[in-house]
Amino acid sequence: MADVQLQLSHVQVNVAVGEEVRPLLTDISLDVAPGDFVTVLGNNGAGKSTLFNAITGDKPLAGGTITLAGTEISRMAPEKRARLIARVFQDPKMGTAPRMSVAENLALATRRGQRLTLGSRKLRQQLPEFQKLAAQTGNGLDKALDKPTEQLSGGQRQALSLLMATMRQPELLLLDEHTAALDPHTSASIMALTEQIVAREKLTCLMITHQLEDALKYGNRLIVLDAGRIVADYDRAAKAKLTQADLLQYFG
User: How many helices (H) and strands (E) does the chain have?
Assistant: First the structure.
């Protein structure tokens, strides 16, 4: 397992619809190596978000196992998995505390997975580090450390969510269409920041996207889901040969 950071083995997720049980994920098996950056494509309802929810524990498994960094997490509570897994959502408001300042949000993120106490936050001592961290976004976030997060632009808030998710080097980073709510220019900026952080920190990352261009440009691997199954899995060499026209065949 040393060369496998994330392993899904015959994972099944069901949903009850009245008296009927319908599969959302069917026999999903996937090995992800340390440092892999995997883009995830599929139609609406293909199972992409369900896959992420199964990994985080927000959807219980009907069968199969999930192992992360050598530890089986299949029955681990979601809050315990959150110590290992960081997730950035489509909605910029979901990853931050709105009434807390940028600096306070970053301070909170430094203690992800730790028991919170009433002790001093030592916020002032951390400000130079936070300013340097925020400056890499290139969108003025470093000049807004004292500003309540609810006053930030969508791009600034999503950049903050990304910084918060990655500053303690999670065992797994899940990006759940994290640029979908942004305009094209801001989306490109966040994607460039994402690539920079993932490469620098050597993070293992899965990214759901509906942007075919981003799916082809970013990451070293691409998987396609359809009706709760993995129907295609392209490694770096195969992915490099793909075109958008090749990917459109999966969208009917």
Answer: 9, 10
